[in-house]
Specification:
Blueprint (H helix, E strand, L loop, with lengths): L1 H15 L6 E4 L2 E4 L6 E6 L3 E7 L5 E3 L4 E5 L5 E5 L11 E6 L2 E5 L4 E3 L2 E8 L3 E12 L3 E13 L1
Antiparallel strand pairs: 1-2, 3-4, 4-11, 5-10, 6-9, 6-12, 7-11, 8-9, 12-13
Length: about 150
């Protein structure tokens, strides 16, 4: 448990530092991430960025403890809405909110496909720009990309 938390925090710090994570060490070997386990699409913006989360056309498995982090500036609060809050879809919750990042966490094992909820970030004083997000699967690696979000404080 401690190792997975350490990995999640380390990858989130890399994300916030602007490092694109494409490979992870796994049992002493490097494993390339070649597919997008999740899609994060902005559906509304300033001052409350709302991201639609989708597992795509093929079912994806989540394990309790998997995390999704979103970087930014001026973040004041965050929430999870829609089916993503339900146990059958991972029971996602806000684990940590800081001025420059939000960390969401799955609380249940789940297998989902298609769109399954929304992750929301509130940053009333921020302007829209490009921010990084990162999904970290405890047993399967991770994936990160850029999306519009709260990039700079006015």
């Amino acid at each position: 448990m401690e190792m997975s938390r350490l990995l999640s925090r380390t990858l989130l710090l890399l994300l916030l530092a602007g490092v694109c994570v494409s490979c992870l060490c796994q049992k002493g070997r490097r494993k390339s991430v070649v597919h997008k386990p999740l899609e994060l699409v902005k559906v509304s913006g300033r001052p409350h960025w709302r991201y639609q989360v989708s597992a795509g056309r093929f079912p994806k498995s989540f394990t309790a403890g998997d995390t999704l982090g979103i970087g930014g500036e001026g973040i004041e609060s965050a929430s999870v809405t829609g089916r993503a809050k339900e146990e059958a879809f991972g029971g996602w919750r806000v684990k940590e909110v800081n001025w420059n990042h939000v960390l969401f966490e799955a609380t249940c094992d789940a297998r989902v496909e298609g769109t399954f909820g929304y992750f929301c970030v509130s940053a009333p004083q921020a302007k829209e720009g490009e921010v990084r997000w990162l999904w970290v699967g405890r047993a399967r690696g991770g994936w990160g990309d850029k999306v519009p979000g709260p990039a700079s404080v006015q």
